[in-house]
Amino acid sequence: GPMKTNFQTVEFLMRDAVASRCFPGAVLLVSKQGRILLHRAYGMADIFNGQAMTCDTVFDLASLTKPLATTLAVMQLVQHGVVSLDRPCYAYCPGFQAGGKEKITLRHLLSHCSGLPPWKPYYLRFSGIDPQARNDLLRRVISAEPLSAAPGERTEYSDLGFLMLQWVVEYITGKALDNYLTATLFEPLGLTSLFFVRHAQPQLHSRYRYAATELCPLRGKLLLGEVHDDNAHWLGGVAGHAGLFGTAGAVWNLLQGLLATDTGWERHLIFERIWVQRFFERQIGSTWTLGFDTPSQTASSAGCLFSDESLGHLGYTGTSFWMDRKRGVIIILLTNRVHPTRYDTRIKTFRPRVHDAVMRAVIGVDKFGSTKENE
After folding, report:
1. Closest C-alpha among 39, 174, 150 to residue 100
2. What's phi and psi for 59, nearest 5 deg?
3. What span, in angstroms and rounded, lies between the C-alpha atoms of 306 and 165?
4. How far is C-alpha 162 from the chain's CA centre?
5. pLDDT tens across 96-106, in order?
6. In the 3-class helix/strand/coil scheme, how is 68-101 assigned residue by residue?
7. Strands across the sheet with 244-246, in order?
8. 361 DSSP assignment
9. Whole-prediction pTM value?
10. How far apart are CA 280 and CA 114, in angstroms?
């Protein structure tokens, strides 16, 4: 039979990270060319009630919402010919014209070069506003937000840009982002454990076991199955930049479908290959594709063994995925590193180490760093 992949080093690193409290717990999933080689849980999902991590644990995916939810909603609309990547956004969502924003396109927003600032603590500024009015208020506020650069001038990762994308999707479809995605993507693909959690209806997803996140000083409680990102929370749990929850398995299913379509192994139920490939292409003058990050030249969180055509994304709560289009390898690492507080950032040095160890195990790398796969 096929040789068993040796994940000994990976296992050691994962158990050591838990033991040294780099994060309380994690789920790691590794696949190559559509075959899952490792899918394992480590440590604790909740240190206060002694809940162990399992492969079915649901994580607050944080910014993985950007590529896995908002970007794919836009991809559908582009594919249907309802929106164009290079027309100004105000053509689709009135009001995005103030202060130089009339030049911002969907392409700018998806590749993080719209010139919008990265982040603002809106949840502090407008704390007393009625929840129903928040989306409209924020849309007006961001429409008036001064740009930090001209559209297309430079790359600056921005939550605000993805809130704008959310409003474009909602304006065009007439549906809330979560409802649109559930109906057109998650349900048709059978991804029941990929969802947003609305405050108003927490009972909808109460049957799941969640990885705990922070003991939140602002909300005065342990966050469990409630979005960690404060702006997303302020918006009621559904936002273009954060709010998606899911298991490693569900994230893998979604990514593997896209990867198989990109490489031509399979036809996607929803996406045409041409659009998957266009969204997977690095944009001119940017380190981003449309919605996905690419490995940086130095000190990438992907480590140093992913090929140039790889894509991935990180989430603040301790979540990430990287996929190598050339080799068909996907690594999903979901942790609860913000549990019980956000201040431990050792995951930054841990991620590339564990990615390198996984890649060595999966593609075979000699000690000089050259891969054996081509021999």
Report:
1. 150
2. -105, 150
3. 29
4. 12
5. 988 889 999 99
6. HHHHHHHHHHHHCCCCCCCCEHHHCCCCCCHHHH
7. 59-60, 244-246, 194-196
8. I
9. 0.96
10. 19
Give dist(CA 215, CA 234) in Å, integer: 17
In angstroms, rounded to a whole number, what is the distance separating the alpha carbons of residues 277 and 158? 23
Place of tokens 């600032």: 117
Instruction: Rank 85-94, 332-341, 356-365 by mean pLDDT and report only the highest.
Output: 332-341
Q: In Å, how far are 108, 152, 159, 183, 265 from 189, measured between CA atoms?
A: 28, 34, 27, 10, 17
Q: What share of the chain is helix, strand, coil (3-state, %, to 5)?
A: 35, 15, 45
Give the gyration radius of the chain's Cα atoms.
20
> Bridge partners of 58?
210
Distance, in Å, from the CA atom of 335 to the CA atom of 59, rounded to the nearest integer, reads: 8
Structure tokens at 14: 């994962």
**Spatial contact of 98 and 115, defined as CB atoms under 8 Å apart:** no
Alpha carbon distances (Å) from 47 to 52, 268, 272: 8, 40, 43
Residues with Cβ < 8 Å from 49, sequence gap 6 or more?
A: none
Dihedral over alpha carbons 224, 229, 230, 236 (to 10 degrees): -70
Residue type for 36, please? I
User: Are residues 157 and 112 in contact, defined by beta-carbon separation less than 8 angstroms?
Assistant: yes
CB 223 within 8 A of CB 214: yes
pLDDT tens by residue, 219-277: 999 999 999 999 999 999 999 999 999 999 999 999 999 999 999 999 999 999 999 99
